[in-house]
UniProtKB/TrEMBL annotation:
Signal peptide residue numbers: none
Stretches that traverse the bilayer: none
Species in which this protein is naturally found: Clunio marinus
InterPro entries reported for this sequence: Adapter_Engulfment-Domain (IPR051133), PH-like_dom_sf (IPR011993)
Name used for this protein in its record: CLUMA_CG007338, isoform A
Compositional bias segments (type: Polar residues): 78-88
Ranges of biased composition (kind: Basic and acidic residues): 65-74
Chain residue ranges for the region called Disordered: 1-26, 65-89
C-alpha cells in the first residue's frame, strides 16, 4: 500500500535565543554574531570562516588591515547588520543562484549525463584547490616588490636613498647617443648599473626608451645577429622588471602615470594614433593586426597610406624613420605582446599594493585622482563620480574573445586575460561598501560589465558554447564568472521540474540542439601562429555537447562556491574522510584567531564571547552540512548511489521508526562482529540506493573467510520505514524494514545494519534514502490525484502509513538522547 514520506528534522535549539540576547547587551561590535541565527541567515548561513573573519574585522580592524594580503577577496556577506533593502536584495541574488545550480545539477542527473554524484564533485574539487584569496595568485603576478606584503617596509623605502634622476643627468644620458644599433648593450648596462643599483630612479623618458627600443631593434640576416637581437629584447624585459622591483609604484606613482599618459603614435598602413598613452596605442595596434584579413587589409578600419613612425623619444633625437612597419605581421604582434606584458605587470603591482594599503573606503580612494589605481587612470572613465565602461575596455573583451576563438598561443591569451582581470577587480573594489552598515552593491558596475562581456561573446561570429566556456575560464573574478555562467545556464536550461535535455519545442524555437559529439574551437588549418581574421557570416544556431554542458555547470558551481565562501561545506560533502577533522581544525584555528583579537576586552566578556562563538559555529556547521547535502539530492528523480559496505546482519526491532529502536540491535550486531574468530570476517556487498528501493549485491568472496553468506536482496521503498546514521558507531548505517503484513508475526520489524568506509559515506547513504522517500512521496501524491480525477472526484483513500528518515547528525542525536535520559 502507498505510504507517504515524512522527513523529520530537529527543531532549533531554544537556548540560542537567550545567549544571543545576552550578547546584544554587551557591545555593538558583536552585532554580526547575534544575527547569525536570524530568519535571514538561517536560510543563507555564513561559513565558519566568515564568522571568524567578521569577528576579527569588528574587534581589531588594524590587525585585519595588516593581514589583508592573506585574504583580499571581496566577500558579499562580510557584515550581516545591513539595511533591509540591501539585505533582501543580496538574499534574493543568492537564492536565485542556488535554485539555478540545483536545477542544473538535477538536470544532469535526470538525463544520466553524470554517472553518479561523486563525478560531479570531483570536478569541483580540482578547481577548489586553486587559491583566489591571495593577491599575488589572484592577479597572477609573477614577481612583486618586497614591500607588497609589508606596509612598514613600504614606508621605509621613502627614507632610503631613492631619488629621481636630475634633469642634467637625464640630458647627459641622451647626449651619449645610446640609440644606435651597436650600443644597445651599453644602454642596458648604463640603466642597470648606474641607475637601478645606485637606487636612482631613471625617469620617465629613460623607461619609455626601454619600451620603445623593443620596437626599434631590427633583425639582420645572419644567424648570430638574430640571436643577439632576441637576447637584447630579453635583457630589456629584465631591465624593466628590475625597475619595478627597485622603484615600486607606491613611491613613484606620478612618474609611472606620466609614462602611461604620454602621447605615443605609430602611423602607417595600420593607423594607430592616440593621445592617451602607450597602453592605448599598444591595444589599438594589436586590434588592427588581429583584424587584418588575408589580402593584407583591415577588416573594419580605413586604410592609411602614410608610412611614418612617430616615437616620442626617437623623434627628439632626430630619428623618425623606424623599421617597425617593415617587420612581418607575426614579429609585430610578438613585440607588442612583450610590451603589453610589462605594462600589465606594472598595473598588477600597483593594484595589489592599492588593495593592501587602502583596506577601507576603497571607493573614495578610486574617486580621488591622486590615489586611484593606475588601471583606473589608464582604462576607466569617471562620469559623475561613477566609473563607466570605455571603448578600450570593450576592445579588450573583444580581443580576448577573438584570440580564444582563433587559437592564439595560451601565453598570449593570458596577457590579455590578466588585463581584463584587472578591470574586473577594479569594479569589485569600486562597489565595496564604505562602511560596515551595507552590503556591496554589485548590481551597478560589475553587473553592467558582465552583461557587456556576455553580449560580446554571444554576438561574436565564432560563438559556440565551447568558446563561452574557454573565455569564462580565463576570468578570475568569481562574481563576474557567476553572472556570466548564470545567464548562459538560463539560456540552455529551462528552470522547472519538467525540463529535460531531449529535443523539445523550447530548443527548436531557440535554435539550440543537443548532441553528444565532441566540439572544438575554430580549426587552424594553415597552422599559423597568429591566424588571420576571417569575416564570415555564421548561422546563429549552435550545439550543446555533453562536455560543454558539464564544463559550464562546473564553472558556475566553482564561482558560486568561491563567491559565497562555502568551500568548507562542499569539501565535507564530497570528502571520503571523517568530517570531524576539518571541523576540529577550523575550530582550533578560529579560537586562536579570535583570542588574538580580544586584547581590549575584559576577561569576562572574552570568555562569554568564546562560548557563544563556539556554540554558534557548531550549530551553523551542522546546519550547513545537512542543508547542503539535501540541496544536492533535492529534485533528483532518477539517481543511483552505490557504496561498498560490510553487512553486519539483521535483528528484530520493537518499533517502526526512531533511534531508540535501532540502537540496541546495532550494539548487539557490533558486539557479535567484534567477537568473530580470527579466520572469519564480515561479508562485503554493494549497497545500492535507488528511487524504487534499496538493493544488496553479493560480492564474490571465499566462504571460509566470511562468517556467513548474504544473498542478493531487494527491499522496495514502501517496505522501508526508517533510516539513520548510528550515533555511537558513526560509520554504521541502519534501517528498519517492515515484513509482509499478510504474515502475522510477533516481530514484524527488522533492523539491517551496514558498516561503511567512513562516517561521511554513512551520512551520504542517509541523505540518499531521504531523497528516495521524497520521490516516493511525490509519486504517491500524483497517483492519489490521478485516482481522484478518474473516479469523478470521489475515491476511497487507502490507509496511509508513515515512515521517516533521521537527518540529524550523530551529535544532535546524542544530545537528544542525553536529554531524554
Amino acid at each position: 500500500m502507498p505510504r507517504k514520506a515524512i522527513i523529520k528534522r530537529k527543531s532549533d535549539n531554544p537556548g540560542e535565543s537567550s545567549l544571543q540576547t545576552e550578547v546584544k547587551s554587551k557591545k555593538r561590535c558583536f552585532s554580526n554574531l547575534t544575527n547569525l541565527n536570524s530568519d535571514e541567515n538561517i536560510n543563507n548561513p555564513p561559513t565558519i570562516k566568515q564568522v571568524t573573519t567578521n569577528t576579527e574585522a569588528l574587534l581589531n580592524p588594524e590587525e585585519t588591515k595588516s593581514n589583508l594580503h592573506q585574504d583580499v577577496e571581496i566577500k558579499p556577506l562580510s557584515s550581516p547588520s545591513q539595511t533591509p533593502n540591501s539585505a533582501c536584495q543580496m538574499r534574493r541574488r543568492r537564492e536565485d543562484s542556488t535554485v539555478l545550480l540545483k536545477k542544473a545539477i538535477a538536470t544532469s542527473f535526470r538525463n544520466k549525463i553524470l554517472e553518479n554524484s561523486i563525478l560531479m564533485m570531483k570536478k569541483i574539487r580540482k578547481v577548489l584547490e586553486l587559491n583566489f584569496k591571495n593577491t599575488k595568485n589572484r592577479l597572477q603576478i609573477v614577481s612583486t616588490p618586497q614591500c607588497l606584503y609589508n606596509i612598514k617596509q613600504c614606508h621605509q623605502n621613502r627614507s632610503l636613498n631613492t631619488k629621481l634622476t636630475e634633469s642634467s643627468v637625464e640630458n647627459q644620458f641622451f647626449a651619449k647617443n645610446f640609440f644606435s644599433e651597436d650600443r644597445h648593450y651599453q644602454f642596458i648596462l648604463y640603466v642597470r648599473n648606474n641607475m637601478c643599483n645606485k637606487r636612482e630612479f631613471p625617469g620617465v623618458n629613460v623607461i619609455r626608451c626601454v619600451l620603445e627600443m623593443i620596437f626599434k631593434i631590427t633583425n639582420n640576416e645572419t644567424q648570430n645577429s638574430v640571436i643577439t637581437t632576441q637576447q637584447t629584447i630579453r635583457e630589456l624585459h629584465n631591465v624593466f622588471n628590475s625597475i619595478l622591483q627597485t622603484f615600486p609604484t607606491c613611491n613613484f606613482r606620478s612618474s609611472y602615470l606620466e609614462l602611461l599618459k604620454t602621447p605615443f603614435q605609430i602611423n602607417g598602413v595600420l593607423m594607430t594614433s592616440t593621445e592617451r598613452g602607450i597602453l592605448h596605442s599598444m591595444l589599438n595596434l594589436l586590434s588592427d593586426l588581429m583584424e587584418m584579413t588575408e589580402d593584407g587589409k583591415n577588416s573594419q578600419k580605413q586604410i592609411k597610406t602614410e608610412n611614418i613612425n612617430n616615437f616620442y623619444c626617437w623623434e627628439a633625437q632626430g630619428e623618425q624613420n623606424s623599421s617597425f612597419n617593415n617587420f612581418p605581421r607575426n614579429e609585430k604582434i610578438d613585440r607588442i605582446f612583450i610590451v603589453l606584458d610589462l605594462l600589465v605587470s606594472l598595473l598588477e603591482n600597483d593594484l595589489a599594493m592599492f588593495t593592501v594599503k587602502f583596506v577601507k573606503n576603497s571607493r573614495k580612494r578610486i574617486d580621488c585622482i591622486e590615489t586611484r589605481p593606475l588601471v583606473c587612470s589608464a582604462l576607466w572613465e569617471t562620469y559623475e563620480r561613477v566609473l563607466s565602461i570605455t571603448q578600450i575596455i570593450k576592445n579588450i573583451i573583444q580581443m580576448m574573445i577573438n584570440m580564444t576563438a582563433l587559437n592564439y598561443p595560451k601565453n598570449k591569451i593570458e596577457i590579455i586575460s590578466r588585463l581584463f582581470n584587472l578591470v574586473c577587480q577594479t569594479s569589485n573594489l569600486y562597489e565595496y561598501p564604505e562602511g560596515n552598515s551595507a552590503y556591496p552593491i554589485f548590481d551597478t558596475l560589475t553587473n553592467v560589465l558582465s552583461h557587456v562581456v556576455f553580449n560580446a561573446i554571444e554576438n561574436s561570429i565564432f560563438f559556440n558554447l565551447n568558446l563561452f566556456n574557454e573565455v569564462t575560464d580565463n576570468i578570475k573574478s568569481p562574481l563576474v564568472r557567476m553572472i556570466l555562467t548564470k545567464h548562459m545556464l538560463s539560456k540552455v536550461t529551462k528552470c522547472d521540474e519538467q525540463f529535460s535535455l531531449a529535443s523539445s519545442s523550447h530548443y527548436l524555437n531557440s535554435q539550440i540542439f543537443m548532441t553528444f559529439e565532441s566540439a572544438s574551437l575554430v580549426e587552424n588549418k594553415n597552422l599559423q601562429k597568429y591566424p588571420l581574421y576571417h569575416v564570415e557570416e555564421v548561422e546563429k544556431t549552435w550545439t550543446i555537447t555533453k562536455d560543454n554542458f558539464l564544463k559550464l555547470l562546473r564553472l558556475f558551481a566553482e564561482s558560486f562556491v568561491n563567491f559565497y565562501c562555502i568551500r568548507e561545506v562542499i569539501d565535507e560533502m564530497k570528502s571520503d574522510n571523517n568530517v570531524e577533522s576539518p571541523q576540529n581544525s577550523n575550530e582550533k584555528h578560529s579560537i586562536i584567531q579570535t583570542n588574538s583579537t580580544l586584547n581590549e576586552i575584559n576577561l569576562q566578556e572574552k570568555v562569554q564571547l568564546r562560548k557563544i562563538d563556539l556554540r554558534l559555529r557548531k550549530q551553523i556547521h551542522m546546519n550547513l552540512s545537512r542543508d547542503t547535502c539535501m540541496f544536492y539530492y533535492n529534485e533528483i528523480k532518477n539517481f543511483m548511489m552505490l557504496s561498498k559496505v560490510k553487512y553486519l546482519g539483521s535483528l528484530h526491532s520493537k518499533g517502526l521508526w526512531g533511534i531508540k529502536h535501532t540502537r540496541r540491535p546495532v550494539d548487539h550486531l557490533v558486539t557479535v562482529a567484534k567477537n568473530l574468530p580470527p579466520n572469519k570476517s564480515l561479508p562485503f556487498c554493494n549497497l545500492i540506493v535507488k528511487t524504487d528501493g534499496v538493493h544488496i549485491e553479493t560480492l564474490p568472496s571465499s566462504s571460509a573467510s566470511s562468517s556467513y553468506s548474504v544473498s542478493s536482496t531487494r527491499w522496495p521503498i514502501d517496505t522501508i520505514s526508517y533510516g539513520v546514521q548510528d550515533l555511537v558507531y558513526t560509520r554504521v548505517f541502519a534501517m528498519i524494514v517492515v515484513k509482509d503484513e499478510q504474515v502475522k508475526q510477533e516481530h514484524p520489524f527488522e533492523v539491517h545494519a551496514f558498516v561503511c568506509d567512513s562516517r561521511a559515506m554513512a551520512r551520504r547513504l542517509t541523505y540518499a534514502l531521504a531523497a528516495s522517500f521524497q520521490e516516493y512521496s511525490r509519486r504517491v501524491k500524483e497517483a492519489e490525484e490521478s485516482n481522484y480525477n478518474n473516479n469523478n472526484n470521489t475515491f476511497d483513500s487507502p490507509l496511509k502509513r508513515k515512515f521517516a528518515i533521521d537527518l540529524r547528525s550523530p551529535e544532535e542525536l546524542l544530545q537528544e538522547h542525553e536529554t531524554e535520559a
